[in-house]
Each structure stands twice: as structure tokens, then as C-alpha cells.
Amino acid sequence: MNALRLSKKLFSRSLLCHTSSRTLTTISLSSLLSPSPSLSSPAFHRPSPAANGNVGSSLLRSPWSAIQNRGVKVNAINVRPGNVIEKTGRVYQVIGSEHRQRGRGGAMIQMELRDVDTGNKVSLRFGTEEPVERVFVEEKSFTCLYTENDTAFLIEPDTYEQLQVSLDIFGKSATYLKEEMKVRLQLFDGRPLSGSVPKHVTCTIKETQPSMKAVSITPRYKKAVLDNGLTVQIPSYLETGEEVIINTEDNSFVGRSNK
């Protein structure tokens, strides 16, 4: 009887050791297959290559997301009005760019520039393939509250930050500014450089010649004065008080408003 009890105890201990061994082996393999680095481990802080790739690709897709990026070299022939460049330590906004031929001397680019710090205008010449350092600026959306004299009062829709800017930064498009219009500003170091209005704007015909239905042949277009004071060409069938859509880039008639 005692021999039977002794054999049962030995069998139980053997089974327990075998189970513990299997458990420890499983835990050891799991830890090897699924490593969990500590917070102090360099692997924990090291960004993955995929993450770095995503950052780079997003920057290329949206260059305006990089604020005041310097050191981007472009050929002078690729510089456009509105771009910001750096030359001999000064930052300029490009007002105009003209391609000129110098006979046997080759082609050149004549640029009209405005100094961002002083506001002074200068004219510089560049070779068509001459490298120019372009500076990317921040572009933000604002809502026009109202205009008064030579100033536009804007508000940033997300932060409710209010900003006063000169109408000059909108150029000829400043004529179209009105309440609740969405506009975009380009800023450098927080200072507005230029502004733009939507490409298509709805205006009201304030004054125009009445349609001459009795005449068999009538002019296809006629002059009209809009509610912003601008004179444009509109189809002869339109009347005073109607709303029309105007292209702000060339002041051309686009169509009758559906409102």
C-alpha cells in the first residue's frame, strides 16, 4: 500500500514538472516572437522608415505646408509673379517677370521685385537657367468682414484672429471684395504679402442699357456697371438688377446667376 502511494506522488511531481516546463517554454517563445521594447530602449524612440517616407511625400504633395522653407533652388525662367525669392540676403516678392532676348547675348529674365522688409521696388536681371533661391510662404484662408477706405478687415474662421491688410495686396481684384467673401493670403513671417479672391464672383447689374426688342439686329454685348463700380461687357438680353457671375481674373462675363 505504501509503495502504491509513493508511486502516485512521484507521478504527480513528474507531471507538474512537465507542465511547468511546457509553460515556461511557451512564455519564452512568445517573448521572442513579440518583443516589447522599454521606453528607454532606442528602438522605442526610433521612427520607422515608413513614417519618414509619409512625411516626405506629404511635404511634396503640399509644399505650402512648409512655412518659410529656404534653400529651394529653381531656374529663373520658372519663377512666377507672386513667388518669394531670396537674393543677396534680402527677401523679395516677385511682382512681374518678363522674358527678353539679348540678341547674340542669349535670353534673360527681367524681374520686378518688392523688398518684403522695406517695401521698395527693384528691377533685377537673371539668366534663364540661373539658379534662384525660392522661399515658400504660408498660405491661409480668411473671411472678409468689410472694407473701409484702403483697408480690408479679415477674420480667420478657425481661430477668429482678426487682421487688417491694405487693399493693395489684392491688386485689381480688391474691387470684388465684399462681406463674407472667402479670400486667401500669403504670409511671410506673419506679414501679408499678397491676397487673392475667388475666381468666380456673383455681382449685381447696377446700370445698363435696356434691351431693344423692337430692333431686329441688336448688339451681342453691351456695357454694364456692376454693384462694385466695375464696368464689364454683358449679353444684351440682361437687365438692370439681375445677378451675373464674373471671372475676377479678366473681368469677363461667365453666366447668369441661378440664385
TrEMBL record:
InterPro entries: Elong-fact-P_C (IPR015365), NA-bd_OB-fold (IPR012340), Rib_uL2_dom2 (IPR014722), Transl_elong_fac_P/YeiP (IPR020599), Transl_elong_KOW-like (IPR013185), Transl_elong_P/YeiP_cen (IPR001059), Translation_prot_SH3-like_sf (IPR008991). Residues 139-193 form the Translation elongation factor P/YeiP central domain. SUPFAM superfamilies: Nucleic acid-binding proteins, Translation proteins SH3-like domain. GO terms for biological process: peptide biosynthetic process. GO terms for cellular component: cytosol. Residues 201-256 form the Elongation factor P C-terminal domain. Signal peptide: none annotated. One of its GO terms (molecular function) is translation elongation factor activity. PANTHER family: ELONGATION FACTOR P (PTHR30053), TRANSLATION ELONGATION FACTOR KOW-LIKE DOMAIN-CONTAINING PROTEIN (PTHR30053:SF14). Belongs to the elongation factor P family. NCBIfam families: PRK00529.1. This is Elongation factor P.
